[in-house]
Amino acid sequence: MPLDMVRDSTMENRRWREGQDVAGGVCCNSLWLSSRLCSPKKVKLAAPSGSMNLDDKDDERLPGVAVEVEPQDADYAGISLSDELENLISARVPRSESWKFFFINRRFLSLMKSGELYQLRRDIGFREPSVFVLASGDSSWVEFDRCFNSCRKLPAPPTDIAFTIGDKETFCAGNHLLVLGKEFGGKELSFVIWRYDLATNGWFRGPDMEKPRCLFASASCGDFAYVAGGIGSDHEVLNSAEKYDPENKMWESLPGMKRRRKFSSGIFMDEKFFVVGGRDENNNELTCGEAFDEARRTWELIPDMVKEVPVLSSQSPPLIAVVNNELYSLEAASNELKAYVKATNAWKSLGPVPVRADFNRGWGVAFRSLGNELLVIGASSAVPFAGHGMSIYSCCPDPNAPAGDLRWKALDSGRSQRSSHFIRNCAVMLT
């Protein structure tokens, strides 16, 4: 090869490597595996025979040198991570970024679709909440990250129009989003469950409850979900309860409650499943609550648990959520946030909430636990007649703080103003 061509190749390679120290490092830190998708080439100098002093700067010795072209990452081919270590690193990547794993190789694709990655996250205690929202007028669910900085539209379930436009109940268990409603089974409507699997990004039918129902209380704890009460297929108000295990996709019957209830709400607190408020089989308001101790397999009646909470006609089930093992309530009549005092079985006012829960008697408002924060979504109290899109707020409540000391933080994904303020369903998934 002519001397000037080899010299040019050497200078170009040196300039590229000097630039790699600055620019290449940034690229590797932001997306390490992308370097394998487009590997720059490197010119490697090697003598065909004998020895050569590479430190000698005399260009006259360069004629006769062989030129070999190799991938830039060839020098690092011997340094690699084990599959186990790669999995541990991947498990800590935020879910809003994990979709990129699908484009790396088949092993990562299989890791994502099998659900193994989510199991690994549970094993190492790394979980993050995702919020699933179905607003009025939307045909598909939208998944938001915890800070509502990014969102993703879910595929629509392969169901009929009756299920799509009808009332639905929603909760999460493990990496399953369960949506319960009614669709045509022959000539009449019947209860059905559609299950969204986060790992496969697909919808599946069932499994059905032991006693299908609607307007029931539900709560999630760890990988399990609990339901109780509601209205059965024969329009009977139920006191039965069930537990869902996403691992084997099965329902387990639990001992029945002491009261039949519909329009009640459920939470998990003090390692117990609580069912609060609602109406009995005679449509009378219930101010008591019940707590299920799974270890003892018994229900404990708690009289007057929501006696101080005013009830409007045609009001939604109680808007309650648990943060740091403390129970909070959004009072629909006054738009006030209240904290439950366990020692006295009473409620303490903490201040106003920046959404209009009174606009539709509590309906259309999402009030959920989001890790160590409260999440509320609905019509903004700052906008008259709720004429704009949904407003999203979070706060870290303190049950011992004086009234009016709440600090609400506004969240916005950019999509919120394009969606209705009336929230039909909302569920939080920890994966």
TrEMBL record:
One of its GO terms (cellular component) is nucleus. Gene3D superfamilies: Kelch-type beta propeller. PANTHER family: F-BOX DOMAIN-CONTAINING PROTEIN, GALACTOSE OXIDASE/KELCH REPEAT PROTEIN-RELATED. Keywords: Kelch repeat, Repeat. This is Kelch repeat-containing F-box family protein. Transmembrane segments: none annotated. Coiled coil: none annotated. It comes from the Eukaryota. The lineage of its organism: Eukaryota, Viridiplantae, Streptophyta, Embryophyta, Tracheophyta.
